[in-house]
Design goal:
It is built from five helices and no strands. With 79 residues, the protein is mainly alpha-helical. Helix 2 crosses helix 3.
């Protein structure tokens, strides 16, 4: 079984890849999603660069803005 620190690292990596993917698919910009999440563009940028991860409320806002489920932000492609 994987440890919590391993899983957290995987989630951060998956968030970054999935946020980038869906933003490109939907043609959305950092500024727009940061405003929806009520965070600075710098905070949103940190989520995209694997420096931090969004909390569940922000992940839900991002998913709704992208017209996807929160699961789509954290699962690997093909799952």
């Amino acid at each position: 079984m994987y440890g919590i620190s391993y899983m957290k690292g995987c989630l951060i990596h998956m968030y970054k890849n999935r946020i980038d993917y869906w933003m490109k698919e939907k043609g959305l910009k950092n500024r727009y999603l940061a405003k929806l999440c009520r965070v600075s563009e710098q905070t949103f940028s940190k989520w995209r660069k694997n420096k931090t991860q969004p909390d569940l409320e922000s992940a839900d806002i991002i998913a709704k803005a992208l017209s996807i489920q929160v699961d789509d932000l954290i699962k690997k492609e093909g799952e």
